[in-house]
Amino acid sequence: MKRIIIGISGASGFAYGIKALTLLKPLAIETHLVISKAAKTTCCHEVSQLSIEQITSLADNVYPIDDIGAAIASGSFKTMGMLIAPCSMHTLAAIAHSLSDNLLTRAADVVLKERRRLVLMIRETPLHLGHIKNMEAVTLMGGIVFPPVPALYQPLQTIDDMITHSVARALDLFDIDIPSIPRWGE
Description:
The protein is an alpha/beta fold.
C-alpha cells in the first residue's frame, strides 16, 4: 500500500492542502492528514464554503496535532513521504531546527531521518535572512522547498487551475502522476 502524509500548517493557502487531498482521493494512495491549530484558524478565513469535517473527510486517516504517538510519528510506519501544503515559516523553522513539538513537525522530522521525501510548499513573501537560512537547512537535510509559483506558460483560466497545477507539480516530486494535468510539450 502506498501512503503519503499531508500536513496543512497555518500559512495562507489552505486551498493547497485541500487540492492535494482532492487530487490524491481517486488514486490508490492512502492519505494521512495532520492539520496545525493555526491552520484551522486560517481555514475559517480562507475556506468558508467547507467545514473542517468536510475537509478531513477527504483523507483516509486524520490525526490530532497533539497525537505525538500516532503512526506517522514512527519511522517504522512506511510512507512515500510528506507534503506540507501550505508550509508556514513557523513550521519551516521548527523542521529546520528539529523541533518536534507537535505531530506535524514530528512527522516531518521522521520523514527526514528516514531519508524519505519531504516537500514544503512555503508561503511567505518577502523573505528575510532567517527564512532563507531555514530553507537552506531543510534543503541540506534532504527536504525540498517548493513555493507554489504559478506556471504562466500553461493555459490557466482560474485560481483553481493555478492551485491544481502547483499541487500536481509538488506531487510529481513523489512520482505521483496526475493524468489530467497538461505537461510541457505534450
